[in-house]
Design a protein that fits this description.
Helix content of chain E: over 70%
Number of domains of chain C: 2
Structural class of chain C: alpha/beta
Helix content of chain C: 40-55%
Strand content of chain E: under 5%
CATH superfamily of the largest domain in chain C: Response regulator
Strand order of the largest sheet of chain E: 1-2
Oligomer: heteropentamer
Order of helices and strands of chain E: HHHHHHEHHHEHHHHH
Shape of chain C: globular
Shape of chain E: globular
CATH topology of the largest domain in chain C: Rossmann fold
Structural class of chain E: mainly alpha
Chains: A alpha/beta (238), B alpha/beta (236), C alpha/beta (395), D mainly alpha (284), E mainly alpha (308)
Number of helices of chain E: 14
């Protein structure tokens, strides 16, 4: 798999003294959507935070387009083209939608590139254009999530990691968000996401990983995992 | 006739800004039973715990404990009435020793409290570390300490927020056995847990929350096959 | 015969005993705690320099009782509590031969308790509050001596000048501290005595620099005279804000601070017409005053203030009393200080039985074309006051 | 009389607002109450004093210079000391900045002596009907208004300014956006010091200055940001004007001695009813 | 149990030595030691509220000032004996703590700290304003210094009491409950601990000592004025003493008081113009280099009990 854009090898680590990851390996190739699923406590979000440098792994390495990036700060990774959308629809609530998007392009110096990115984001999420002068804190949950994703697109990153994009959204917005992720793939973005809504996430995924208790458990094409009853059993036991 | 409920929650609602975290949930807990509370991330389980224990003020609805209204009371008043809880993120008192963590929560005579605390520490095999600062214990040990700290007050209702997370298998089995013993001694237990093996093996009744609403209630086997529950977890 | 011989012998021994250790003891050490830092730092440092110059002068003239004089000074940070401890240290640890007073009335009020306890004479050159000296019969103090005129007299010149020119109403403001309150209450008494009406009196906290509201109230009452019992910072701020709020009394005077050269440096022409009270001026016809002024300027690179002069004079007065007593013994020095009448660069010195100053004259000056011109009392006046003070917009 | 004190209150309120905005920025972005804010203001005042008296420059022209100098001082302080107590318990940051504050005041006493200094320029008042408008205060009002306006323009319209606001709303998301949070802290501290310096420079022309002048400004600034809502920057404007008015009106109806008491009682009352200040803000 | 014997014998020996000290000491020696006692009372009392519960009182000198004025008024206006007046000074401080503790202890973090700072400023302003009672800016003069040695003993006794009280609290469950407020107030409440009441009790206890010390100091200095009994610097000094020695320990405040007072006294004498600069540097150094304090560090490193 030499065309991999990002590869994480055998990550071990977690918060402080507590290990959550006991050897997690993930990879994503250019143009793919890769989904990471697993029950709560499997270490999905922790793996993402470790990859983007919020957490430092105890062992293991992360390679992004041929360069080792283990433990590099998130703001520096963004400059290399690795964007991250944290869990929980995190936006700057007191800033307008437009300002939020501009902040997404903080690392981009050329105004022309910012304008182009803005146009792309507005095209993908027309609702953000409508609400561009509104304070982000007044948006609905789904709109905030779109804003968070749109903000990550502002640097035209080569890879976007999305942590639970559908978390806490109403079914209508869940559908919308997954539609948008599909559109993004068609537009040429490479995506890797952690999702709780496994069915939806697997349905759009090229490849998928299922984690359990900090270890890789299953791996394969999204549809294969979706059909596998063992995967379902991870969630509800029995 | 069913015995009077230990805890009765009616149409509890809690909003944060524009988000309704708990949306009209009603629960009824009978004495001497083990209940599970499950649901995907963000479904409102911890918020419900916080509303029961007075950490959060509820917006609507009521909570009665042993027939007595407890909503609107301060957390310590609710705790003194006999509801004990653990936290999702461990909240032991890091610069108190393990023993002190237990002693501090009761007003019993010191000798009796000490004896009880030592017994509980022995029970979770922490007696050798009784003088260690709680903050220096391992994650699993802190978890156990937090568990026995709840028992110090001998509450009638025990709320456990993810008791199994981060605890190794052998200890976990002891812990589950302890929970069963508590039930046998007449305690009621409500636990939030993600480890489904634990939930299914331990709980007699399971409540399922999704988007702040109660979507199912029943025996574990029934819940496991409930379409709405599978959907909530696995998506559609 | 034998008794006489014995008496002579004892006297001789006394002389020997008194003389011998003196040479063995080395210099006479005089201790003081001064406000070298903190709120009174500026004034305390001037006083310190006064002491230093005095000691220098004494030593050039052969010292005191044939011994060199040495100064031991600590910083009390302008706080009474620290000064108390430092005087105790000076007396019991350093075992100084004599002490001089600290700066300011509050610090003196606290420190004097120590010097009384150890029966040490303290000439307190910069304590102007009457209550330090005039005490109820059961709480008399015996060893403290006043040098400057009491605070109550500070505004006398202003009130007197105004009354003579037929002004009728007075507003009095003061900082809420020991000295300023005394000055203000003195002004109230004097004004009433002269048949003037006190239309306004208010205190403001120490450190206050915003007088807008206070002056707005004053302005509404349009008093003829504004008498302000101030220290330095507030005197400056008050004057500036009077101009800004267009407050136009026919006479306006301050107490301490108005006499410092910095007052004019800071306010420039806005200081014109302002009356100030001072215990001393270099131009006053006191003996050696000009020489002192020049020597001080040469020594320290700036002009002396009255605090410098009072410090200098206080030290000389103490030295004179010691000289006359022929000993450092407190009770004998005290006797001398009680009966001493002296004219120094600072003016007259004479105290009553309480050590309270009765001879020194406070003078009132007015800033005229950048210079302090003494305008009161008449016998020391160098010019007439420029009266009335014109409104700000006509200057 | 009421009219006059209302005018005085608004005039000084604008100055309070500007100085307090600096404190609010540091509190919002770094969660630190910078007790050395007042002493930094004092340094700004001295910079203006020396430039205008020694070099004989128009004092108002020195305002930007004072701001630049203090920006640099702020940056150095942040980089050497203050960054170490970001995220530390409040006791550490309070004490550390207090230590810095004592040291700065004492240093100023050693270097500049404790003499009172002032810049005499544009004294007097414009008399409008029954009201006297102090010239220096009006100019200070205009300056403070303009600088505060510029600060808000900076925060609202420039990339760096927006990044500062972003960081104060969520440090985590700011990092995700590629914002170098350390650098934002540095700029914020510098900017806050510059705002304090501007205050000091203007005060130097209004009242006289001395090394210990800063302390009360720290306390006043804190009152302002609590009144307005900590972490809420427009709140500082409201809080500043409000404090100016409260002080003046209280001095008018009571005495100057009690104006501080009134402000404090109001502060505690507001905190009890609205723990996040009048306009609301972030809770700690 | 020789360790315990030493632990008891050493303080007892020190106490005996201090009790005998006035017989041989100079006036300054007595006064300086009296000051050390005062600082132990102040630092130890601040430790009770802030060291144990974590609520940082940034205006603790307010209780000192309140006690000083309450005591001084009784002594000068009502002719009370100083000992009785000092006790009432302590009571007055507690009453003040009760009145302001109820609203202020509901504030969190920096808000509480600044509210306390403001309280101190307000008390000073009020004392200045009500001059009929307090003498306002004139201050109050008290009888001359005829009682330094008895006051030495009473202040010493107060210091011993504060230390003993700290020991008793730290070794009791009441003390542990106070610490849970510092460690995790939410968890403490969820465990049934009435944190509001506990905070208030700690606050009241922490006010007594400064109140008594204030009245004793007023009497011993013979003169007080608003500016001199409400200085912010005193609050800061007591905080730095506790931090230096080790907050939340029994002997930390004592160690801090002794070391810092002696240092200040020595520095004062030698370098009058720069001592505030040095004090500032000491504060910064303590905060950055040893936030746990000397005893705190030893406690962690050598696993010493909390009662050191």
């Amino acid at each position: 798999m030499s065309t991999q854009l990002l590869t994480a090898y055998e990550l071990v680590g977690g918060y402080g003294a507590i290990d959550i990851l006991h050897g997690v390996s993930l990879s994503v190739g250019v143009g793919e959507i890769v989904t990471v699923i697993g029950p709560n406590g499997a270490g999905k979000s922790t793996a993402f935070k470790t990859i983007v440098g919020f957490l430092r792994p105890k062992s293991g390495r992360v390679v992004f387009s041929g360069e080792e990036i283990t433990g590099i700060r998130p703001d520096l990774l963004l400059r290399r083209g690795l964007a991250y959308v944290p869990q929980g629809r995190l936006v700057f609530p007191q800033m307008t939608v437009l300002e939020n998007l501009e902040m997404g392009a903080y690392t981009v110096a050329e105004p022309a590139r910012v304008a182009a990115a803005l146009a792309r984001v507005y095209e993908l999420f027309p609702v953000l254009f409508e609400r561009r002068r509104q304070k982000a804190g007044t948006l609905s949950g789904g709109e905030q999530q779109m804003l968070a994703i749109g903000r990550a697109l502002m640097t035209a990153p080569r890879l976007i990691l999305l942590d639970e994009p559908s978390l806490g959204l109403s079914p209508k917005f869940v559908t919308l968000i997954f539609d948008k992720l599909g559109e993004m793939k068609r537009a040429g973005y490479t995506l890797m996401l952690v999702e709780q809504n496994a069915a939806r996430a697997l349905a759009i995924a090229d490849r998928a990983y299922a984690l359990e208790l900090g270890r890789n458990r299953f791996e394969g094409p999204g549809t294969a995992l979706l059909a596998d009853p063992e995967v379902k059993r991870l969630y509800l036991g029995g | 006739m069913a015995s009077p409920p230990v805890l009765e929650i009616e149409r509890l609602r809690k909003r944060f800004g524009g988000v309704t975290a708990v949306d009209g949930v009603s629960l009824r807990l009978e004495p001497a039973r083990i209940y599970g509370l499950i649901g995907p991330n963000g479904s409102g389980k911890t918020t419900l715990f916080n509303c029961i224990t007075g950490v959060e003020r509820l917006d609507e609805g009521r909570v009665h404990f042993g027939g007595e209204r407890v909503h609107g009371l301060r957390p310590w008043e609710i705790a003194q009435k006999g509801i004990g809880r653990t936290f999702q993120v461990i909240r032991v008192f890091p610069e108190l020793s393990a023993l002190e963590n237990l002693l501090v929560v009761t007003r019993d005579r010191l000798a009796a409290a000490r004896e009880r605390a030592l017994r509980l520490l022995r029970f979770v095999k922490l007696d050798g570390l009784r003088d260690e600062y709680a903050g220096n214990l391992s994650y699993g040990q802190q978890k156990l300490l937090e568990f026995v700290r709840v028992l110090m007050r001998d509450p009638a209702l025990i709320l456990l927020d993810e008791p199994a997370a981060g605890v190794n298998r052998t200890l976990l089995n002891d812990l589950l056995e302890a929970v069963r013993q508590l039930r046998d001694r007449g305690k009621t237990i409500l636990l939030v847990e993600h480890d489904m093996k634990v939930v299914m093996g331990l709980c007699e009744t399971v409540f399922v929350l999704d988007h702040g609403e109660k979507i199912a209630e029943g025996a574990p086997g029934v819940i496991q096959t409930d379409e709405r529950v599978i959907e909530a977890y696995f998506g559609r | 015969m034998t008794t006489k011989a014995l008496g002579a012998l004892i006297t001789a021994m006394g002389v020997v005993a008194g003389g011998l250790p003196a040479e063995a003891q080395g210099p006479i050490r005089i201790g003081a705690s001064l406000s070298l830092t903190g709120t009174y730092a500026k004034l305390g440092r001037n006083q310190h320099e006064g002491y230093k110059l005095c000691v220098k002068d004494l030593n050039t003239k052969g010292g005191l009782l044939g011994r060199k004089v040495e100064l031991v000074v600590y910083d009390d940070q302008s706080t009474p509590a620290t000064a108390v401890r430092l005087y105790e240290k000076l007396i019991t640890e350093d075992r100084v031969d004599g002490v001089m007073g600290p700066y300011s009335s509050p610090v003196t009020e606290a420190s004097v308790n120590v010097t009384e306890k150890y029966k040490k004479v303290m000439v307190a050159p910069l304590a102007a509050t009457t209550s330090i000296f005039k005490r109820p019969p059961d709480k008399k103090r015996s060893y403290v001596f006043m040098v400057i005129s009491p605070a109550e007299e500070y505004l006398e010149g202003l009130i007197d000048t105004a009354a003579k020119r037929g002004l009728k109403t007075v507003a009095i403001v003061n900082e809420d501290t020991l000295f300023s309150k005394a000055a203000a209450s003195g002004a109230v008494e004097l004004a009433k005595k002269r048949g003037m009406q006190v239309v306004f009196q208010e205190a403001y906290p120490k450190g206050n620099t915003d007088f807008s509201a206070l002056l707005t109230k004053v302005k509404a009452l349009t008093p003829d005279v504004l008498a302000a019992a101030t220290y330095f910072d507030d005197a400056v701020a008050l004057t500036r804000q009077m101009r800004e709020l267009d407050v136009n009394p026919k006479a306006y005077g301050v107490t301490v601070g108005g006499d410092l050269p910095e007052f004019y440096d800071t306010l420039k022409t806005n200081a014109e017409y302002v009356y100030g009270a001072t215990q001393w001026e270099p131009v006053l016809p006191y003996p050696n005053n000009t020489e002192f002024f020049e020597a001080y300027k040469k020594e320290f690179g700036h002009e002396p203030s009255y605090h410098s002069a009072a410090g200098y004079a206080g030290c000389l007065i103490y030295a004179e009393a010691v000289k006359r007593a022929g000993t450092l013994d407190a009770d004998r020095v005290r006797e001398q200080l009680l009966k001493l009448e002296m004219r120094t660069i600072f003016g007259e010195y004479k105290v009553d039985a309480d050590g309270f100053q009765v001879a020194h004259k406070i003078v009132t000056f007015q800033w005229q074309e950048g210079r302090k011109v003494v305008v009161w009392p008449d016998e020391l006046a160098l010019a007439k006051p420029r009266f009335p003070t014109p409104p700000w917009n006509q200057r | 009389m009421l009219g006059q004190v209302v005018i005085s209150g608004i005039l000084s309120g604008a100055l309070y607002a500007m100085v307090a905005l600096g404190l609010a920025l540091i509190f919002g972005v770094m969660r630190i109450i910078n007790v050395a804010h007042g002493p930094l203001l004092m340094l700004g005042a001295y910079t203006t004093y020396f430039l205008s008296t020694v070099l004989d420059v128009n004092p108002y022209l020195t305002v930007p210079v004072s701001m630049a100098v203090l920006f640099a001082v702020g940056v150095v302080l942040e980089r050497t000391l203050v960054f170490r107590v970001v995220d530390a318990p409040e006791l550490s940051s309070l004490l550390l900045t207090f230590g810095v504050s004592i040291a700065l005041v004492n240093l100023a006493q050693l270097l500049f002596t404790s003499d009172l200094r002032s810049v005499e320029y544009l004294t007097g008042a414009w008399v409008v009907g029954p009201f006297a408008l102090s010239k220096t205060r009006v100019v200070a009002f205009v300056f403070a208004g303009t600088l505060t306006g510029l600060a808000f323009l900076f925060l609202g319209w420039t990339k760096l300014g927006k990044a500062i606001r972003a960081t104060s709303q969520s440090r985590e998301v700011a990092m995700v956006c590629g914002i170098d949070v350390q650098r934002i802290h540095l700029v914020t501290f510098g900017l806050a010091s510059a705002l304090a310096a501007a205050g000091g420079a203007l005060i130097a022309v209004i009242v006289a200055i001395q090394p210990e002048m800063g302390q009360t400004w720290t306390f006043k600034s804190f009152l302002v940001i609590v009144l307005g809502g900590a972490g809420n920057y427009p709140g500082a404007l409201l809080g500043g004007i409000l404090l100016g008015l409260i002080e003046q009106v209280a001095s008018l109806f009571l005495t100057t001695q009690l104006s501080e008491v009134v402000a404090y009682v109001l502060l505690v009352a507001i905190l009890l009813v609205r723990p996040t200040g009048l306009l609301g803000g972030r809770q700690t | 149990m020789s360790g315990r014997h030493v632990a008891l014998a050493a303080p007892a020996a020190v106490a005996l030595a201090l009790a005998a000290y006035p017989a041989v000491a100079s006036g300054y020696g007595v006064r300086a030691t009296l000051q050390v006692f005062m600082w132990i009372v102040l630092a130890g009392s601040w430790n009770l509220i802030s060291g144990l519960t974590g609520y940082v009182s940034f205006g603790h000198v307010a209780f000192f000032g309140a006690g000083a004025y309450a005591g001084a008024i009784l002594m000068s206006k009502a002719g009370w004996p100083w000992l009785a007046a000092a006790l009432v000074g302590g009571v007055a401080a507690v009453v003040l703590a009760l009145v302001i503790g109820y609203p202020c202890l509901r504030l969190k973090g920096p808000y509480f700290a600044i509210a306390m700072l403001g309280l101190n400023e307000v008390l000073r302003a009020l004392v200045s304003y009500f001059e009929g009672l307090t003498g306002g800016g004139n201050g109050l003069s008290l009888p001359t210094l005829d009682a330094t040695i008895p006051i030495y003993y009473v202040m010493g006794l107060t210091a011993v009491t504060v230390i003993a009280l700290t020991y008793l609290i730290i070794t009791s469950r009441f003390g542990l409950r106070l610490m849970t407020i510092r460690e995790d107030e939410v968890a403490a409440e969820a465990m049934g601990i009435d944190t509001a009441r506990h905070k208030l009790y700690a606050f009241l206890l922490s006010a007594v000592g400064p109140g008594i010390a204030g009245a004793l100091t007023a009497r011993d200095q013979g003169y007080i004025e608003p500016i001199s009994v409400f200085p912010l610097a005193t609050t800061i000094t007591m905080i730095v003493m506790v931090l230096f020695g080790g907050k939340g320990t029994v002997w930390g405040p004592v160690l801090g008081a002794v070391v810092l007072f002696v240092t200040q006294e020595v520095v004062w004498a030698r370098y009058p113009y720069v001592h505030p600069l040095l004090f500032g540097a000491i504060i910064v150094a303590v905060v950055l280099l040893m936030p746990r304090g000397v005893l705190g560090i030893l406690q962690i490193r050598y696993r010493l009990p909390r009662t050191i």
